[in-house]
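User: My instructor asked us to take a sequence, write out its structure as tokens, and then describe one feature of it. I'm not sure where to start. Here is the sequence I was given:
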Amino acid sequence: MAKNIDAHSRTIREILSNKYGIDYYQREYRWETSNIEILLNDLENRFMQYYEEGQPRQAVEGFPGYFLGPIIISHKDNRTYLIDGQQRLTSLTLLLIYLYHLQKERPEEERVEFRNLIYSEKFGRKSFNLEVEERTDCIEALFQGQSYDYTGKDESIVNLVNRYEDIGELFPDTLREKALPYFIDWLLDKVELVEISTYSDEDAYMTFETMNDRGLKLTMAEMLKGYLLANLDQDKDKKKADELWKDRQMDLLRVSKDDQVDFFKVWLRSQYADTIRERKKNASNRDFEKIGSEFHKWVRDNHNLIGLDNAQDYKNFVFKSFDQYCGYYLLMRHASSTLTSGQEAIYYNALNNFTLQYQMMMASIAPDDDQDTVERKIRMVSSYIDIFVARRIVNFRTLSYSSILYTMFNQIKEIRRKRLSDLAVLLKQKVDTMEETFDGINSFYLHQQNKRGVHYLLARITNHIEVKSGISSNFVTYVSRNIDKPFEIEHIWADKYDRHKNEFNSEEEFARYRNRIGGLLLLPRGFNQSFGDAEYKDKVGPYFAQNLLARTLNPQCYNKNPNFLTYRKQSGLPFKPYPTQFAKADLDERQELYRLICEEIWNTKIFEREGALLN
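Assistant: Let's start with the prediction itself. The structure tokens for your sequence are:
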């Protein structure tokens, strides 16, 4: 008898205990940073509703589950193929690899064994549970904790590496310590997907099309439009509002499809959300969460809070508030993808995946602000976030959405519609009283999970001193992965302990010191391959042909270089050459130099300048 299509609920442990091929028609892995962020936030929020510190591990068995959606599989030729669901399963595999490394240093009784959900071995051959041959080397490198050079590789490989790095940066702090083994248990055995099994290509593709193509629903934005227009009392106003709405939706679509919805979340949260769900067991959703999930219903239920009492209020809301704030949002989104003069900080924050910046910038804008005031406020708030981000990076603090959400939400309410000068005073005060400072650089070093942050800091430092020295410089070049020879982190010291053992008591101590930021540069790919193992005295000459940060190690940089020498004198920064050797004490000096450059880059003068403050 022919087998029918059937469906069963499966845990992640059950799903990933099997091996899957991926059909050619849907081979690419295309998840973006935002998808990883949403996945981690959803998992953390669900888990933390039931977790309490001090619970026995067995309590997890009684936690409610969480549904991650359906996957479609097809059984043919004695293999199982994923027809729909590879984006989620690939991302879950990356998450498991990250969790495997994260729990390595924990006591054995606190570790969860799940390597069989990542790979299996048979006859001495290791194979991963998502079997795509061209991805094997990349997945193997990530599993072994090694970096992977994806130059010239396809889209999926690039996304695999970048999404794995995203997981390291965005994984919530709340899950890293005591909660970690509980979370892993819950993830593997309480998070479920519906597995829809088919037994022919015809059934597989019919099921796929049915689930993805049938029944287009109204979006939340369309339902909000319907509610607002229904409360206008003039047909001509309804027609004009409909045209305006369509025009703005097209403007948002030109940025991305997601922005057609994300704008409303940003706007409504920034201007009106007063409450947020408490971080405790069984807490209820409040303004912030309700706007995120059903903003059209939230507006309807809270129309009095917004000030929608009559037809004129609704008219103003559409023709003034909606139109204005959509324009501001589009300005911000443009600056987030294109380095824009006067709004550089927005680009930097977007590069660091700080998605909350749009809500914070929008919160500061009042409906009656003129364009100049709006741009000044945006500059100040984005610059404040830029300082906040840099200080957290050098103090090994995560920038994950969940770890900073409550802090940022409270600050959104504090800065909401502030006068320009009051905003400047408040933001400067917040920087001055910030717990994290650039003193953190004194012990800052490169490790497996902060490579992107270190690269970013080096790019900002290099670009800054070049601009200050009158040298043509392009920050985007230093961070781009889409050029022929992208810039990579270069260790000034080769990984040769024997050359430095007179200064260190052990190879481990040397390795830690070698990774300190004062011993790092950004250099184009290829240089490291040519000179990586060379002694310092053989590298310092070629350094002079590289960017200014590298050139400052070479004595020639201090001869006939008036712009740099002027900058050096005016700034008071302790630049000095290291002609033939770069010892431990020299690295310490360089570390302090980098700290002082960071203090110069991320200073509070912008609040005085943009907020018209007196010294």
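For the description part of your assignment, you could build on this observation: The longest helix spans residues 311-337. Try explaining in your own words what that tells you about the chain.
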